[in-house]
Amino acid sequence: MPAKLLKGAEVAKEIRAELKTEVQQLHEKHGAVPGLVTILVGENPASQSYVRAKQTTAHELGFYSVQDSQPADLAEEALLKLIDKYNKDPKIDGILVQLPLPKHINENRVLLAIDPGKDVDAFHPVNVGKLMIGEPDYLPCTPAGIQELLVRSGTQVSGAEVVVVGRSNIVGKPIAMMLMQKAPGANATVTVTHTRTKDVKAHCLSADILVVAAGVAEYVKGDWVKPGAVVIDVGVNEVGKTADGKRLLKGDVEFEGASQRASAITPVPGGVGPMTITMLMKNTVRACRVHNNLK
User: Fold this and answer.
1) Which of 98, 137, 173, 282 is catalytic?
2) Residues 170, 172, 173, 174: what is their CA dihedral angle, to the nearest 10 degrees?
3) 98 in catalytic set
4) Per CATH, the architecture of 31-117 is what?
5) In order along the chain (295 residues), what is the average pLDDT of each group of 10 residues?
6) Which of 84, 101, 114, 199 is the most exposed place for a label (fewest CB within 10 A)?
7) DSSP 160-215
């Protein structure tokens, strides 16, 4: 029997509706409006598209939102001063610097410059450390979206064997940390595999929940999936064009084979991707509450 599709686009729509109501209540009851600034340096087409999507969503939810576009030759020191300005701006609750940055700018230095209380991407070492000890202020957006998909689909996470394929700082490491915490939607036993793992297939076959963020199209084959497992495919890889010229996208999992063995699986596109921006918005609303001393 083909697997149930875990459609992130539908879950994201549900969460955004909840957030819109919350934003209205914050404004009506407390006069508070979540504020988000997105900073874009240069004219990378993919980055421009991502920023537009974030700004559009922020506007739809009723945020105070600022798009600050800067030229590609912006000096690193100028960018740091710009971040400092928004750190001090009481109307701004969340600061997002769109990555990647031009090569002459040190990304780590930029991320460190963001006030951890306004770091709604949750990339600052302070926020990474708080996640590590199980006391996060903000959850990294893509991993948070994965956890929401699992919880809202009714997937049993507590006690499950979870295998994560990939150890990036953006997805692999944080989702492993989140799912092993002693917390709702977690309490799993987590194994992380990577490029030096001797037998990735064997690990995958042990997984009740398989999270794949390898960055390689169809890296995990269909017969690597344990029958009945839940598969979360984080990958989005362009492998060519369709007959009508559109981008042909593949995930990190061989969908056709995996969907015949899994009990549930995320499609690509339309699975994890739509959740990421939504969780960014959720972090910004949370930041607004914190900055206004609201529960």
Assistant:
1) 98
2) 60
3) yes
4) 3-Layer(aba) Sandwich (3.40)
5) 92 98 97 98 91 96 97 98 98 96 96 98 96 96 98 98 97 98 97 97 98 97 98 92 84 97 96 96 98 92
6) 199
7) -EEEEE---TTTHHHHHHHHHSSSTT---EEEEE-TT-S-HHHHHTT-SEEEE--S
